[in-house]
Fold this sequence. Notes:
Mean pLDDT: 83
Number of strands: 8
Order of helices and strands: HHEEEEEHEEHHE
Oligomer: single chain
Amino acid sequence: MKNFMLLFALIIGVNFQNSIAQDSSMTNSPSDAIEEEWDLVRFRFQNFNKPRIDVNYGFTSVSYDKDFVASEFHDNNAIEIKLGFDKIQKYRFTDNIYRFNYSYIGIANNQQFSTKYDETNNQELRIETWRISLGNLEGFGYDLGSNIKLGFGEGNTMVWTQNNFIDKSQNQSDNHWFDYVGDSFRFGAQTESNINLKIGDYVGLNAAYERTAVFPRHMFWYWAGSEITRGIGSGLIGWFVREVGKSTPEAVPVVNFLLKNGLNYGFYELRKKNMNWPFDTEPALMFDTFKIGVSASF
Length: 298
C-alpha cells in the first residue's frame, strides 16, 4: 500500500509538472502566466468529454540485450483494444489549434501464427504476449475545418506483460532466462508517438509507433528515480514549446510532437541496457510496434 501511494503521488507530480509547462501565452506578465498554467491544470483534471474506443493492428519486433540472451525472436502480429475518455479544447490564443488528452486502459496480444520453429536450425524463436496497459496520450493538433482535425500526440503508459516463450533455445542459459521472465505478469513502461485524423464527431484514423520496455523485475525506487529524470526532461521541453507558442503558435503541434517523442525514443534506447536508466540495472525486454487503427468517440 505504501508503494502504491508513492506511485500515485509520483504520477500526479509528473503530470502537474508537465501541465504547468505545456501551454503558451502571448504575454510575459506573471499574472497572465499563472492564469495560463492553472487553465491547463484545470483542463488536465476536469471531467472527460467523450467515451472513446480504439482498435489497432500492427507488427512488432522483439529484442533483448545480446550480452544476456543470444537468441533471436520472430516478429509478431499485434492487436490492441483501448477503452477510455477523450477531451479536446481549443488552444488559448489560436482558433485553428487545439489540445487533447486521452486517458485509457488497454489490452493487447502479440503473437506469430504462421511460423513453426525447427530446432535443428538457428531460427528465430516465437514469443506470445498478453499486455494490460494504463496510459495517457496528449498533445496538440490542427483544426482543418469541415469538422476534420489532425492531432500529433505523445503517450506514456504503465504496462503489465505476460510472456509465453513458445520455443526452446539451443542455448540453455537463454532458456533459464525465459523461465525467469515468463512465469507471471511483469511490470514495464511504454511510450507512443501517435498521429490521429479525426473525421467528424465520431470517427478517427490512427497511425503510431510504440516502444515497450518490460522489466525482468520491478525495482520501485529505481523506477521512480528514472521516471522523475524523464519527467524533468519533458518539463523542460514543455517550457521551450511554450516559448515557441508565444511567437509562432502554429508551430506548437509539430515542435511538441518532435521534441517530446524524440526524448522518449532516446530514453527507451538507454533502457535497452539499463531498464531504470540512469541507474545501473538489468536490461529491459523491448517491443517495437508500428500500428494503424480506428477510433470511435461517443
